[in-house]
Structures are given as C-alpha cells and as structure tokens.
Amino acid sequence: MNYKHLLALTAICSLPLLAQAQTVRIVTDVSYPPFSKQAADGSITGFDPDIARAICAEAKLQCELKAMDFDGIVPALQAKKFEVAIASMSITPERAKIVDFSDMYFNVPGRLLAKEGTQINDAWYKGKNIGVLRSAVQQQEANDKLKPKGAQIKVYGKITDAFLDLSSQRLDAVFLESTVGEEDFLKTGKGKGYAFVGPVFNDPKYYQGCGIAVQKGNKELLAKINVALKKILKDGTYKKIQDKYFSNDIYPFK
User: Fold this and answer.
1) Strand ordering across the sheet containing 173-177
2) Which stretches make up the Solute-binding protein family 3/N-terminal domain (predicted)?
3) CA distances (Å), 133 to each of 16, 227, 247, 249, in order?
C-alpha cells in the first residue's frame, strides 16, 4: 500500500468519528417560561433546555442551544439552520409533514385565562379579544372554535406580551397551555385577580402531546433522541427536571 492509499483509507476511517463529533444545533423559544427563558447573563434555562441537555448527555451528543421566536422555529429547521427544536411544540399532522417528531415528552391541556369569576358560555365570546401565541396549537383551535362564536383573535409572537395586554385590559382573555398560564402568570404577582375560566380544552384533534422536532429525514438522530428520552423517563431524570419547574405531572406517567 502506497502513501496515497494510506491517506485515503485514513480519511475514510475518520468519517464516523467526525460525524459523531458534529455539533447538534438545538433551538428553543425563550419567551415561554417556565418551559424556557433567557437569564440576564444570556444563559438559557427552563424545562425544555434541561430536557435537551439531559437527552444530549444520555445520547452522548455534543449540543449547542440557541434561541428564537416560536413562529420562526419550523422554518429554521426546514432551512437547516438547526437540527433539533425543543420548544413545547404540539405534535400536529400539518407539522409532521415538514418535520419529524420524537415520542411525546409532555402533554397539557389548553385553558382560558381571564378575570376571576368570569362565566364562560357561547354568548360570552362575542366581541371579546382573546390572545394566543402565534403558531401555537391554540391559535388554530381558537380560529376553529372561538372565532365562529364572535371572538376576536389577537396573535402574539411572545406569550409574555399577551400577559401584559391582559393585565392592562387590552385583552379579555389569553388562550394558552395551562402550565404556562399557571406557572408564569397565576403564581406571580401579575396574576392576582385572574384565574382559569371556562372548560378544559383537551380535544385530541389538537392535543396529541408535545414532541421534539427534528429535521425531516434525519432518522438516525431521531432514533437517538427517542432512545435517550425513554432512558431519562425510566431512570427518574425526567421527573427530577419536571419537579423543578412544575407542581403537577406533565407527562402521563402510568
């Protein structure tokens, strides 16, 4: 074997090692506490980042976590700016056409946040301003179910902006994932005088759980994520992270 052949063989043998060392770029939405937020020092914290780090550690993946607004996340995956998104993203048939989803990693219903004592019936919705997060499953559900009853649906890039408008009475209600409303609004000073009102929204058409989104077609990475997710669910790592942020189970443990 001559020197050139040796170099070529060395390069070929090195390819798997290079692939293993490649950084997996993960994106999340930091305007969605307690699932994800950005600290004053720029660090990204919350349930989603902690789950991402636990999965990366279990799967022995070198990962890099970045932030962007929720409505830009799927397009960023399509444009191959990121390999993975862990951003409390509801699994829907429409999204599943353009990204691959991991197994469900949590499932919580939708609720309406409004002034305490608000009585909700079909007539109440007429003329009411209701805030939703852009591209969230609640936006679609509000358009399908609440808009026909006369509600005006106002869309926000950040759910925290909807909270501000609710507090200043520019909104009559915010429609969102219940856990976010509880942890980031009702349990804070700004939530005084407000409550969940009306029904629990858990129609399986909209609530199939949230999944980790992976670039379409990256089956190897998706498989690694699912294996790691199963392991952290089994060994208690998931529950330890969950209990750090939530007072109730958000995964349907059996």
Assistant:
1) 152-156, 129-133, 173-177, 110-115, 194-201
2) 23-249
3) 41, 31, 23, 23
Mean pLDDT of the chain: 91
DSSP element (H, E) containing 32: strand 31-32
Token pair 């999204």: residue? 95
Helices (H), the chain: 3-21, 47-59, 73-78, 93-96, 137-141, 159-167, 178-181, 219-234, 237-245
Query: Above 50 in pLDDT, residue 11?
Result: no
Handedness of CA 199, 170, 177, 92 (dihedral sign): positive
Residue 18 has pLDDT above 90, yes or no: no
pLDDT, one tens digit per residue, over 77-135 is: 999 999 999 999 999 999 999 999 999 999 999 999 999 999 999 999 999 999 999 99
pLDDT above 80 for 70: yes
DSSP assignment of 64-79 equals EEEE--GGGHHHHHHT
216 has a pLDDT exceeding 70: yes
30-43 per-residue burial string, b: 16 or more CB within 10 A, e: under 16: bbbbbbbbbeeeee
Q: Any idea which residue has 């930091």 for tokens? A: 30
Report field, pTM of the whole predicted structure over 0.90: no
β-strands 110-115, 173-177 pairing: antiparallel
**Cα–Cα distance for residue pair 209/222, rounded to 1 Å:** 17
Q: Which two tokens stand for residue 3?
A: 């020197």
Q: How much is the CA Rg of the chain, to the nearest whole Å?
A: 21
Those residues whose C-beta lies under 8 Å from the C-beta of residue 188, and which sit 6 or more positions away, are none
